[in-house]
Design goal:
It is a single chain. The protein contains five helices and eleven strands. The relative contact order is 0.11. By secondary structure, the chain is an alpha+beta fold. The protein has a three-stranded antiparallel β-sheet. The chain has helices at 11-18, 50-59, 88-96, 110-120, 137-147, and strands at 38-41, 47-49, 66-67, 74-75, 80-82, 99-100, 107-108, 125-127, 134-136, 152-154, 161-163. The chain is 29% helix and 18% strand. Strand 1 (38-41) and strand 2 form a beta hairpin.
């Protein structure tokens, strides 16, 4: 049977949340990143990205009862709580969490960590939009501007945009 406490969180969940460490152990169990729009499964207290949990629920064979992607606890749709519905103590505990960037020494609260991972970390690995090259942000920018064979450059003679790899063949 599915356990649904009146306040949306069991005593075990609140006690567990109060004992959270300040490491990166509370990342989404589906994408392994900091939950962008965190939702909680009230029967077990696990936090997941809202979009990823929706995809997870679509994959489940049972339409009425789902399994937590981390602990497999049974839950129903009404057991999923969006961040704005979380009890204030749980929201405060979530905001006090500190996440360490996987690529550098940055440590911050959930919102600062998300912003850092998306826009601020110069050490994160990204791919070149024109080829298979991957490297940290700075190296990839340098590659795409100077070395990538698929980068469009303007011909010095006619001004026509061509791929850098074909520049020598263009006349």
């Amino acid at each position: 049977s599915v356990h649904r406490p009146d306040d949306g969180f069991s005593d075990d969940c609140v006690a567990t949340a109060g004992a959270l460490s300040t490491t990166d152990t509370h990342k989404c169990p589906i994408c392994f990143c900091i939950p962008r729009k965190p939702v909680s499964i009230s029967v077990c207290g696990h936090v997941v990205c809202e979009a990823h949990l929706r995809m997870w629920m679509v994959r489940e064979l049972h339409v009425d009862v789902f399994a937590c992607p981390l602990c497999r606890a049974a839950f129903i749709r009404s057991d999923v709580m969006t961040y704005d519905k979380w009890p204030l103590p749980f929201r405060n505990i979530w905001q006090e969490q500190r996440f360490k960037c996987a690529h550098c020494d940055f440590v911050g609260d959930p919102q600062a960590s998300i912003k850092h991972e998306q826009f601020g970390c110069a050490s994160r690995v990204v791919g070149c939009p024109g080829c298979w090259y991957t490297g940290c942000v700075g190296a990839t920018i340098q590659h795409s501007q100077r070395q990538c064979q698929t980068t469009l450059v303007n011909c010095k003679d006619c001004g026509f945009p061509i791929r850098d790899a074909r520049h020598r063949l263009h006349n």
